[in-house]
Amino acid sequence: MAIHDDQARHYGDELFQALGGARTVVPLSEREPGLTIDDAYRIQQQLMALRCAAGERIVGKKIGVTSAAVMQMLGVGQPDFGYLTDTMVYPDGAAIPMAGLIQPKAEGEIAFVLKKDLMGPGVSAADVLAATEGVMACFEIVDSRIRDWKITITDTVADNASCGAYVLGDRMVDPRALDLRTCGMVLEKNGEVTVTGAGAATMGSPVNAVAWLANTLGRRGIALKAGEVILSGALGAMVPVKAGDNLRVAIAGLGGCAVRFV
Questions:
Q1: Are 111 and 79 in contact (CB under 8 A)?
Q2: Has residue 53 been placed in a domain?
């Protein structure tokens, strides 16, 4: 049974307070066993409305749960999405303070920067490429307000797809100049190779992931807008991080991206 509007507001308020206090909450799925994905997106909407009311500005979107392994772990057959705001973005080489994070993990991804709006349904991979100004190597710093990362798909959706921060790389490349499916990724933590991956890990291609997002949001009346940054999903496993860690990701044909935690 779907939760009531006042319940959706309550959980959105709770997650907003947890974000501000850098603390965790009991998994929503434990308290609401019947919570649906649509319910979770209603909670996400309340959370983001509060963040925007507090002065944050939406500058893009992110796609999560794009790999078959993570879908299997969460027991779902589809990705999820969340929103990026202007307070989440850091430049290449930035130092991110741990004070504002709770239980962060880093993922190497390919970011798309759009030059045209994309509004589904009916958006194809070719449409995505035509609407993209360029692609960049990036880190997404995922973080969860859900205690001990004990998440189901509804928990992570409600919590804005576990978004924490993101770091954009040192250059932008035309996506038509390379095959994003076969771009290899190497992620180093404190000078040691920790994760490897490739573009095909993200729904067969990061372009497919962006098309999925445009079509999924289009059915909800939401567009991907020119100028927005779209994080297309992890190319490999998440890496836990703590103060003092230095990370670098290199993606073939796209350059690299570095971040440190203080």
A1: no
A2: no
- Report yes or no on 20 lying in a domain: no
Taking the C-alpha atoms of residue 106 and residue 237, their distance in angstroms, rounded to an integer, is 9
User: Which residues, other chains included, contact 260 with Cβ-Cβ below 8 Å and sequence gap of 6+?
Assistant: 93, 94, 95, 96, 245, 246, 247
Strand, coil or helix: 37: helix
User: In the chain, how many domains are there?
Assistant: 1
Structural domain that includes position 127: 60-261
**Could you tell me if residue 28 is inside a domain?**
no
Domain at 182, CATH number:
3.90.850.10
Residue % of the chain over a pLDDT of 70: 99
The pLDDT tens digits of the residues spanning 149-205 come to 999 999 999 999 999 999 999 899 999 999 999 999 999 999 999 999 999 999 999
Partners of 197 in the β-ladder: 185
4-33, pLDDT tens digit by residue?
A: 999 999 999 999 999 999 999 999 999 999
Helix locations, the chain, DSSP H = 5-21, 28-31, 37-53, 68-74, 125-131, 153-158, 206-218
Percent helix, strand, coil in the chain (nearest 5)? Answer: 35, 30, 35
| Domain membership flag for residue 224 | yes
